[in-house]
TrEMBL record:
Organism of derivation: Kineosporia succinea
Highest taxon listed in the record's lineage: Bacteria
InterPro entries (UniProt xref): DUF3515
Matching Pfam families: DUF3515
Full protein name: DUF3515 family protein
Amino acid sequence: MRLVLPDIARLGVRPPRRALIAVPVTLGTIVALAGCGSGSSSGDTAVPALTSGPDASSAACTDLADRLPEKVLSRARNPAQEPTGIATWGDPAISLSCGATPTGPTTDECIDINDVAWVFRESASAYTFLTYGRDPAVQVQVPSSIERSTATGALVDLEEAVRPLETTERRCYDVTDPVPSSG
């Protein structure tokens, strides 16, 4: 099953040809793609606060913090003192955590926003995006009170800050693409 984010083309996002899975280049086999849940939230469910990741105090996260925009989805950055590696915009907040724990191979939806890969998960309270193939990893939570078709716009706004992070060997692949092997 493929999860489609409506209006993705108007955000400057390159949609996948087919559903993508995130796997490291050295992985020789691909597991069957499992659909991730879709749906919408009803009522106001609080978005869980992001916590600083294990690499939040790294030089790469410090540099990323200096590149963060003042606005994300037209929401101003919150002026309150934020923990190391955390930035927020608006209320309810769009949150970013640098130095997050990266994900391993997964069959969760992987989307590409201007050549930055993000693993996508949805819950009743938030749309959660985690970079795939970037070191350190960056996690972004967009509250589900924001229109679903607009949520990836936050990633477009954050792309210039995230893109300079070091890339790793991990890439997202279409389930029909041949996966490079290490041997």
